[in-house]
Design brief:
Blueprint: E1 5-7, E2 17-22, E3 25-28, E4 34-38, E5 43-54, E6 61-68, E7 71-76, E8 83-88, H1 95-100, H2 103-142
Antiparallel strand pairs: 1-4, 2-5, 2-8, 3-4, 5-6, 6-7
Biased composition (Low complexity): 105-118
Region (Disordered): 90-143
Biased composition (Basic residues): 92-104, 119-143
Length: 143
């Protein structure tokens, strides 16, 4: 068939970059393997950040979350099992664009994300710490 490209039902790996397309046709090859094709144009979704799974059986849901140059792109797996990916080289913002504005701007975006992660991890660890301190104080008060 013309205008078809082969796509793959693979499990994306965290940290790698992908294009996504839903398969429009399947075929069994001579080895008994299923081959997937699409007439849709694959969409670059970015670097896989995380996968969330919920539910069981027919009610289950799988969503992959990709980072496409700072924009989160979710891809929910189809019920029919036609969700396919193509592993590609990661795309990044063009260097000329980031250099022409301000070099510090692109790095400050990374810092703000890192700072947010650091703040969340601190709040988690401090809430754990407070809980353990309360317990130890109440125990010491009883004895």
């Amino acid at each position: 068939m013309s205008n078809e490209i082969e796509v793959f039902r693979i499990t994306p790996k965290v940290g790698k970059c992908y294009m996504h397309a839903e398969a429009t046709r399947t075929m069994i090859d001579n080895n008994g393997d299923t081959v997937y094709y699409t007439t849709n144009t694959p969409t670059y979704v970015g670097r896989l950040v995380r996968t969330e799974r919920s539910g069981f059986g027919d009610s289950s849901t799988v969503i992959n979350y990709f980072d496409n140059n700072g924009r989160e792109t979710p891809v929910e797996y189809s019920y029919e099992g036609n969700t396919c990916f193509i592993e590609v080289n990661c795309r990044s913002r063009s260097r000329s664009r980031s250099h022409s504005r301000s070099r510090g701007r692109s790095s400050s975006l990374g810092r703000s994300t890192s700072n947010a992660r650091l703040a969340r991890s601190r709040s988690r660890s401090s809430s754990r710490g407070r809980g353990s301190n309360r317990r130890s104080r109440s125990r010491s008060g009883r004895s």
